[in-house]
Amino acid sequence: MSKYFIRRLLILIPVLAGISLVLFTILALAPGDPFEELATNPNVPPEVRANLRAQFGLDDPIAVRYVRWFTSMIRGDWGFSFVSRVNVVTLIMQRLPTTIAVIGSAQLLGLLIAIPIGVYSATRPYSLFDQIATTCAFLGFSLPTFFTGLLFILFFSIYLDWLPFIYRADITATGWRWWWEHIRQAIMPVAVLGLAQAASMTRFMRSAVLDVIQLDYVRTARAKGLAERITIVKHVVRNALIPVVTLISLQVPTIFAGALITEQIFRVPGIGSLLISSILANDTPVVMAITFVFSALVVLFSLIADLLYGWLDPRISYR
Amino acid sequence: MEERDLRQLIGQVKAGHLSRRSFVQMMVGLGLTAPMAGQLLASAGVAQAQTKTAPYKPTKRGGGGQLKTLWWQGATLLNPHFATGTKDQDGSRIFYEPLASWDPDGNLSPNLAAEIPTVQNGGVSKDGRSVTWKLKKGVVWHDGKPFTADDCVFTAEWVADPATASRNINTYKDLKVEKIDSHTIKVTFKKPTPFWADAFVGVGGMVLPKHAFEAYKGDKSREAPANLKPIGTGPYKYVDFKPGDMVRGELFSGYHMPNRPFFDTIEMKGGGDAVSAARAVIQTGEFDYAWNMQVEDEILKRLEQGGKGKADIVSGGNIEHIQINFTDPNKDVDGERSSLKAPHPFLTDPAVRQALNLLVDRASVQEQIYGRTGIATANFLNQPARYASKATKYEFNVEKASQILEAAGWKKGSDGIRAKDGKRLKMLYQTSINAPRQKTQAIVKQAAAKAGIEMELKSVTASVFFSSDVANPDTYAHFSTDIQMFTTTMTQPDPELFMLQFTSWEAASKDNKWQGRNITRWRSEEYDKLFRSAESELDPVKRAALFIKMNELVIQNVVVIPVVFRPRVAAVATTLRMEQSGWDSDFWALHNWYREA
C-alpha cells in the first residue's frame, strides 16, 4: 500500500511538469498581449509598451520564459499579475474565501437535495414521485446555468424585487445584518449552481441505490424483520454511497476553480471570474497559476479517490 | 474656415454677440475639441466662464450614506500613471486629484490649483514657453502631511523617468518643473507650447505624494505599496481594494473643499457586463451609477420606463470610422502585406473612395443601431456636423456613387460588379466582433452591392484585432484588408497627437513593427506641411485654423469615412446629482456628487 502510494506520488511529478508545459505553450501561442489598451491609445508612445514588455520578460523565447516560470514556481514564487502588478498568490487568496463559500455551499445544497430524493426515488421506482423527480432532474441538467441564472435574476430581482443580483464580497454591516445581507445575495448563485449539481447527483444516487437494493443481503435484512427505515439507512444507503463518495472527491477541485459563468453573471468575485478576466487581459502569470493549481488538485484528488476505494472496499488491493 | 473667420467669431464672443457655448459647439463641429476651443477664448482674453455646475446643496460634510457605483470592468490598479484603461484612471481619481479638470464645456476647473493660469493673471507666459501654477494652500494628504510644490515637482520627474514605464510619459518628458515657493510651480517647455494645459490637468495630471513614492523610483516603481493603497488629496480616502472587483473609500474629513464630500462611503464594484449594469442602476436601483453603457439605445429606453434611473449622455472624443487602405493588402513585398511600396489597385482612385463615402448610410446606422448612443457624422474628430463647413457634409446616395464610378470608367460586368482594366471592385471589410459593428457592416455591404461593389465581411476578436502582436496579420495596425472599421478615441483635449496619425512619417510598416500610427498609409505633402506648421505655431487661433484645415483635407480625400460619433453614456440613479464631462474622468467632479431625497 505505502509502496503503491509512493510510486503514484513519484509519477505525479512528471505528470504535473507535462501539464504545466502544455498550459504554458498554449498560453504563449495564444494571440494578443497584456498591453493591448496601451496599443490603441495614441497618447502612449510605443517605447513605453516595449519597455514594459522587456521589464516583464515578454520578448524572450517561449522556452526561456517557461524555464524561468517553472524554476521560480518551484521556489514558491508565482510571479505577479501583469495587469494589476499584485502578487498572484495575493490575488488568489483575496478571492478564495468567496469562492469556497459560494461553490462549497452550492455543492452542499446539491448533496442535501440529491441524496434524499435519489434514495426515495430508488425505493419506489416508477412511482409518481420518481417520475416527477426524474423529470426535474433532466430539466435541471439540460438547462445551462447561465440560462437559469438569468431567469432567476429576471424573476427574483426584477419582477419581484426581492434579491440583489450583484454580489458584493465587502459588506460593511456587522452582526446579524452582515449575515443576512450575505445570505440574501448568495441565495441566487448558490441555488443556480446547487440545483444544477443536484440534478445530476440525483440520477447518480438513484441508480447506485437501485443496484444495491436488489442484492441478497438486503432481502436477508428485510426477511429478518428489520424496519424498512433501518434497512434503507444502514444497509442500502451506506453501501450505495461508496461510488458517490468518489464522485464527490473528484469534484472537490472545482470548488477551487469556481464557476466561470455563474460568477460572471452575478459578479461574484471568485476565482472563476478572476480567471476569465485574466484570460481576456492576457495576464499569463495569473492564468498559469489558476489553471496549474486546478490541474494539480484534479490529479491529487484522483489519487485520493483511488486510495479511498481501497479503504472503503477491502476487496480492492493495491500492489 | 480661415484664420480671419475664427478671429471674427472670437471677437463676437468677446463683444457678447455670440454665446460662449455656441462658439465651443461650432469649434467642436469643425473638428476641434471643446477644451481647445475654451483655450482659444482664454487666449483672446475672454474671461474663463465659471464652471456652471448645478448648485451644490448639502450644507455639511458627510451624512449621505453609501455611494454605490458600478464599472463593468473592475479597476486593476490604483496608480493613475500606470493605468491601463479608463477603469484604472477612474478608480484612482476617487483618491487622487489633478491641479485642474476639464468640465463638459471644455473649461478648466481648479482642484489643487488656487486659480487657473491665464495670460492676464501672468500664469501663462506670452512666449508660450512656461506656465506658473499657484497651488491651493491648506490641502493635506490623507495621511495628514501637507500638499506642497514638492509633490508636483516629484510627480513630473517620476512619470518622466523612462524606467518607470508610465503611460503618461509623453505628457511630462519634455518639460521642466521648478518649485518657485512652497505653493507655486513653474512648468517650462522645451519649445513654445500653445496648448499648455496638459501636464497636471485631467486624468494624466493627478499628483502623487512625494513621501509615499520617493523610495520607489524607476525600476522599483512597481513595488510601491501606494500603487494598491493610494494616499491622495481627494474627497474619499482608501479603505480596501481587490483588483478587478472592488475599490472602497470613506469620507476624508480633512478634504479641502467646504461641506464636501456628501457621501460617507464610496464603492466602485467591477465585473459583469454593461446590460446588467444598466439594469442594476436604471431598473432595480441597486446601484447609483454605472459607467460606459455600451448598450443598445432600445434597451436603455425600455429600462428607463421604470423611472428609477436614466441614461446620461455627454459628448466626448470617440468616433466610429472606416479606414481606407492606400496600399495593396494582397501583394506581398519582402514579407510585408499592405507595404508602402505597393499602392492599392483601386482604392488609390479618388472616385472609388468618394463613391464609398456616399455608400455609408450613416442615418440608418444611427437610427437602427445606435440611437442616442451614436450620432451620424461626417467629421473625423467630433460631434454632429451641425455647424460644420460645407466640406464636411455627409450624404447617402447610391445613384450618385454609381455615377461617379461610371464617370471614372468603372463599368459593370455581367456579374453586376464594376471593373476597369481587369481590376474588379471587390473588397474585404474587417472589424472587431461587436454586435453593432456587424450590423453596420451589413448595412454598408448592402448599399455597396447596389452600386456594383462587392464586399466580403470579416470580423476579428477584439483581443486580437487591437493587439500589438507583431506576428499576427489580423491586427488593425497590420491592416491586411481593403477597409476596416473601429472606434478611435481622442484621449487628449489637444488634437496634435491625434492628428499625427495622418502624417507620412508615421505610416505603419514592417520597419516600425506596425507601431506607426498612420494605419491607412495615406501620404500627403500638403498635410505634412500643415502639421509641421501647427507644431510650431504659437498663435492659438492660427493653430486652430491649421487643425481645421487638416481635418478638411482628410475628409475631402476620403482617407477615412466617419460613421457615427459616440458620446459617453452613463447610467445614473434619478436621485443622484452629478455631472459628467466628456473630456475627463467620470469622477472629475466626484466631490460635488450628492443625493437629493
| Radius of gyration from the alpha-carbon trace of chain A, in angstroms | 24 Å
Largest sheet of chain A: none
Spatial separation of the terminal alpha carbons of chain A: 6 Å
**Average of the residue pLDDT scores of chain A:** 84
Characterize the overall form of chain B. globular
Gross morphology of chain A: globular
Distance between the termini of chain B: 49 Å
N-to-C series of helices and strands of chain A: HHHHHHHHHHHHH
Q: What oligomerization state is this entry in? A: heterodimer
Structural class of chain A: mainly alpha
DSSP strand count of chain A: 0
Helix content of chain A: over 70%
As residue ranges, the low-confidence spans of chain B are 383-391
Strand content of chain B: 15-25%
Overall mean pLDDT of chain B: 86
The major beta sheet of chain B can be summarized as:
11 strands, mixed
Percentage of residues assigned to helices of chain B: 25-40%
Keywords:
heterodimer, A: 319 residues, mainly alpha, 13 helices, B: 597 residues, alpha+beta, three-stranded antiparallel β-sheet, globular
Reconstruct the topology from this structure.
The complex is a heterodimer of chains A (319) and B (597).
Chain A: H1 2-29, H2 36-40, H3 46-55, H4 62-74, H5 88-123, H6 128-142, H7 145-159, H8 175-213, H9 216-223, H10 228-257, H11 260-266, H12 271-280, H13 284-312
Helix pairs in contact in A: 1-13, 5-6, 5-8, 5-10, 5-13, 6-8, 7-8, 7-11, 8-10, 9-10, 10-13, 11-12, 12-13
Chain B: H1 3-15, H2 20-29, H3 34-43, E1 66-71, H4 86-93, E2 100-102, E3 108-110, E4 130-134, H5 149-160, H6 169-172, E5 175-181, E6 184-189, H7 210-213, E7 236-242, E8 246-251, E9 265-270, H8 274-283, E10 289-290, H9 297-304, E11 309-324, H10 350-359, H11 362-370, E12 375-376, H12 398-407, E13 411-412, E14 418-420, E15 423-424, E16 426-432, H13 435-450, E17 454-460, H14 462-465, E18 483-489, H15 495-499, H16 525-536, H17 540-556, E19 560-573, E20 576-577, E21 594-595
Parallel strand pairs in B: 1-9, 1-10, 16-17, 16-18
Antiparallel strand pairs in B: 2-3, 4-6, 5-6, 7-8, 8-9, 10-19, 11-18, 11-19, 12-19, 13-14, 14-15, 20-21
